[in-house]
Amino acid sequence: MPLSLGPSSSAGRHEARRRQFHDLACLLGLAVDLEHASQLGHSFRVAVLALEIGEGLSVPEGEVFYGGLLHDVGQILVPRPARSGLHSQRGAGLLRPFSSLRALENVVANHHERWDGMGWPNGLTGSEIPLASAVVALADSLDTQLREVSPPERVDAAAAACQRMRETLVSAAVADAALGLIDQKPGLFATLFDDAELRRLVREVEAEPVGLDGLEDIELVAEMLWLIARVSDSKHAHRVGHSARVAFMARDIAARLGDVVDQWDVVCAALLHDVGKLLVSPPILAKTAPLTLDEVTAIQQHALHTRAIVESLSGLSYLAHATSSHHEAWDGDGYPRGLSGEAIPLVARIVAYADAYDALRSDRSFRGALPEELAVATMREMAGHQLDPGMLDVALDALTATPAQSPSDLLGFQAFFPAGRGPVLDAEARPPTSWHDVRLTDSGRVRADLSALGALTSLEEANLLDHFTESERPSIAEAMRRSTGPHAARAHTSRKGHAVELAFSRDERGLVAHVRRADEVARPLRDLAFAHRNFLQSAEAVMFTDAHAVIVDVNYAFTRLFGWRAEEIVGLTPKFLQSGQHPPALYEAMRDSLVTPEVGAWSGEIVNQTKSGRLVAVELRVNAVRDASGNVVGYVSSALDITVRRREREALEASERDLRAKNTELERLNQFKDQMVALTSHDLRSPLASIIQTAELLTETCGELSAEETRHRASLIADVGHQLVGLVTDLLDLDRLEAGNLAIQPRRFHPGGLVHTIAAAPTSKARVTAVVRDDRASVVADPERVEQALQNLVSNALKFAPPDTTVELGFEAVGAGGARFWVDDRGTGIPEEALEGIFDRYHQLGGARGSRGVGYGLGLAIVRHIATLHQGRAFAENRPSGGTRFTLELPPAESVVRSALVLGPADADLRRVARLLESSGFVVFSASRLAEAQRRVAFEAPALTVVHEPWLPQLPIARREGALLVAVADDDALGRRPDLDAVFVRPVMEVELASIIRAARPEHGGSNDRWLAVRTSP
């Protein structure tokens, strides 16, 4: 099993192990997140944020990054209702037995402790809390809070949160480190919530893990894979321990098959075989009723998910094909690819037996566990259809001999994988490899105990040569005579037929024979026999080369993939496959790995060239074949076209994005539902009760009240009704704003006129004054939405303004085209810690400020969303002289809408004019009441205005440079007035209106700031 890939140097091996640990830890963090759809990306964000915060503190990078990545791993052991109080301790206990993760135990155990002693589970305070735990705690809390904040507000929200948590959750030093990070890298928070960028950040992290020293490669992999399998299985009650049991049983089957398969390949594939089910909806897996076609498809997709996940794991990607094929069927009726027979990888066929047996012998959502006799009978029926019939007897012998208590828990795992004792397969599973030294005379006579030699050859001859056949003796005698120093071992066969390896050396005491049993002598032949059986039908392109890399043979899949016939390339080296896409260093690293005895293999993705010159990406695996003496006799390579895999990976990523989007939308709808329930049960009850009470009083006293009293009470009902209509309108607007469904229509208008118009509206409380510092200025924005925002700010200020005071509404130009609006009240002010939160939906202040006036906490939320739509900002600050100033700032913008006003009663002629304008590219705004027309004329700056003739004297349409004023009358009686550029007789001809439109459109030579007044008679 090539767990150590890449360069054979110690530095290269260390980097390979670090990358392998990194990939497995990331998969473990992702698996924990996938248990909660709302937490997708949480572990990655916490890990990256903790690493960045910890950069300015004396804390090991490996502790904060991997501690952040695995801080919630204990959630798999704690029932949902109790998770907040127990998962940190359970997570620490889960990591404790594993030497590769033990250094993270304290980080995970204490990441919910607080600096002020109000945390859990132990109520630690101050410096009692490990620094790495405090960093992870701050990163965890920041991510939890920022998930609920809109993207433009995250940087400010992060800074405010760090200030709040300073010397409460964490020490001042940790909070200051986070604040420094926010100042230096404000763009980090946008990156953290961008899925692709977040994955890139995590992939590029080079933090050094703590605890890898002294670990065998296989120990590291075994520990991490068991935890990943545990997380995967924990999602479904009936599957707890399933993957570990399958690994236990599959290894027994592999052991009985002998050397034809690597037992560690089987164990790793078994632990990972269901990891793709993390992406399948739990209700589907737990469903007891018959599955729908879509649900069956969703479950079958887990094989493709498994493949994509395993492909991402350093050192294990070569197992992706086998791991995802355990649901392929011998008769070709399986999934995901419909492979059949020996085209199914042997590893997958072994795992399929163990998986099927454990499924039959376990309780499932739709049935109970089957007794052993019935399970065995069912397996026999499956052989030849779903399962490989050639290994039926071997597999059933192994499965029925498996102890009833297979390693489904931590203790069972430790017994199966004894961590800390070197390679973790039990000693019986490894062939004996120890040498025995036998002292000889120069003639070959044994000078000491014969027992060691006799145990190897099953003979008790006193002379070494007599243990071997006559044909073997000359070469052995020659080796004895030439033994002036150690020589390479050679294999010989004893007279009893035992394969024995011999090597000779000479020291000061004489001749020494080094002897061991050569069970490996026949291994190349057995391997080749097994390979030949799978060679022709393999779905992978297989190539055999000799020790000099000369091609000996290729299979049909190879010729199909690369386009070369076997007779064209046998006798050549594989250099003709090189595409030129890779540097020479890659091929040098490949060669070094293959010739290094401790490695002997290479795998990875590589781009090759077909006969036609087409480039094809393949997953390549090359293994060196050695004889009993360790000499390389050839190489076997297998290549799998990963074009389909890449499409599947893209489909998986698209599916994940769709799932995240749907989860986000469901969260939003769920929050909206909760808020609507709260609003309906609390905020709507009082107004409705007031309406009912007043109406009932009117009914009971009808005829007894004066006309004035009746009008007063009816007006109360109308006021409350308008209040409720405004509330519903605000709710709908806010929902559309938050869902991104409310578009703005920016156009040029005059904010000074808008401010004067709003301030002039009558109020029942404090007086509103207008302060316009740039009366002639114009800005580009959506005037309707700006007006809505200012109305909300003024309404909010009036609620909290003391009697007989003034609320100030102001405007000033900012730079070239920017605008700043403000509203000042004379109230009691707002607590500093609440200034940011008051713009949240449904946020209401209590105390003295909140006791005056009634509100629903929607107006200011709408203001902030409107500011965001304009790429501006809205904020509040307390004034030194008392009260609060609310500010709306809009940046400069380009005009994107050419607008026209149509002012007058909605008669057929005006509607026809409006349609002509719309067909010419204008966005038309109409006003059918004189008051609305006067309000629009006060601040709009359209390119064209159509006015009903009787209204013209009452509308203050200021003549600007380059403006056109055109009247439309019933006849010519009016003649040409000096303030009009033209007079059209009604009905207006399209050609006449077209000439005015051309004059008002800048692309046809007209001004960008022209007015057109069309006078029509009634």
What's a quick, concise take on this entry?
With 1018 residues, the chain is α+β, with helices and mostly antiparallel strands.
Question: What does this protein structure show overall?
Answer:
This protein has 1018 residues and is α+β, with helices and mostly antiparallel strands. The protein is built from 36 helices and 22 strands. The strands form 6 sheets. It has a 5-stranded antiparallel β-sheet. The longest helix has 41 residues, at 643-683. The radius of gyration is 40 Å and the shape is elongated. The relative contact order is 0.05. Residues 1-8, 404-414, 418-433, 520-526, 846-856 and 1003-1018 have low confidence and may be disordered.
Please give the structural blueprint.
Elements: H1 10-34, H2 42-54, H3 61-69, H4 83-95, H5 105-109, H6 131-146, H7 154-165, H8 172-184, H9 188-192, H10 195-204, H11 217-234, H12 242-257, H13 263-272, H14 282-285, H15 293-311, H16 320-323, H17 346-360, H18 372-382, H19 392-401, H20 410-416, E1 436-440, H21 451-457, H22 473-481, E2 490-493, E3 499-507, E4 510-517, H23 523-535, E5 541-546, E6 551-554, H24 556-562, H25 566-569, H26 584-595, E7 601-609, E8 615-626, E9 632-641, H27 643-683, H28 685-700, H29 707-739, E10 747-749, H30 751-760, E11 767-772, E12 779-781, H31 783-800, E13 806-814, E14 818-824, H32 847-850, H33 859-869, E15 873-878, E16 884-890, E17 899-903, H34 908-919, E18 923-927, H35 930-939, E19 944-948, E20 966-969, E21 982-985, H36 990-1000, E22 1015-1016
Parallel strand pairs: 11-13, 17-18, 17-19, 19-22, 20-21
Antiparallel strand pairs: 1-4, 2-3, 3-4, 5-6, 5-9, 7-8, 8-9, 10-12, 13-14, 14-16, 15-16
Helix pairs in contact: 1-11, 2-3, 2-6, 2-10, 3-6, 6-7, 7-8, 11-13, 12-13, 12-17, 12-19, 13-17, 15-27, 17-18, 28-29, 29-33, 30-31, 30-35, 31-33
